[in-house]
Amino acid sequence: MTSLPISFLLTLCLLVIPSLSSDSDPLQDFCVASDFFFSGLGIPLNTSNRNGVAVAPANVLTFPGLNTLGLSMNNVEFAPGGVNPPHSHPRATEAGVVIEGSVFVGFLTTNNTLFSKVIHAGEMFVVPRGLVHFQWNVGKGKARLITSFNSQLPGSAVLPSTLFGSMPEIPNAVLTKTFRTDDATVNNLKSKFAV
């Protein structure tokens, strides 16, 4: 009588454990029609925007050779004072190395603890999957990172534009209550992120 529940639990555990990984294991060695070379990580980027940051992704959409391999990379360039705003990658852990400059890197745990440090050329950081994080160029000149992800398409949820620039819009009542502010402030923020 007790063997039925134990075997059921064992079967359930064996079915659930593989579903906890990032990208699934490939069913083939590689995608045959792919190009296995990419030159987009070394090009200079245009950082003349409001945040002073530009990202050139090397993911399965821009570099088909990554198909089924479970990894991707970004070239991230910052103007002086540039900020990669708080964001998260729902499908990947991020690791990065500073190539040039000094960058303040931080991430928040699920209990709202900030882990942060200024890192310099040759130093590296890691951000666990799904956690909110940011980077800020605190040096006098430009800064550059190369980041990598354990997913061919990590996704990115950028908090300011997600909250204040969504279509359709999040109702003001939700945002005023969440941020303990008024309609005028929420409308002002929405105007800065309108698509």
From TrEMBL:
Q: Which family does it belong to?
A: Belongs to the germin family.
- Which residue positions does the secretion signal occupy? 1-21
Under the heading Pfam families, the entry gives: Cupin_1
Identify the residues that the record assigns to the Cupin type-1 domain, covering every copy.
Answer: 39-187
The UniProt entry, under InterPro entries, shows: Cupin_1, Germin, RmlC-like_jellyroll, RmlC_Cupin_sf
Kindly indicate whether the keyword Cell inner membrane belongs to this entry: no
Q: Which UniProt keywords apply?
A: Apoplast, Glycoprotein, Manganese, Metal-binding, Secreted, Signal
Compartment list: Secreted, Extracellular space, Apoplast
What species does this protein belong to?
Brassica cretica (Mustard)
What protein name applies here? Germin-like protein
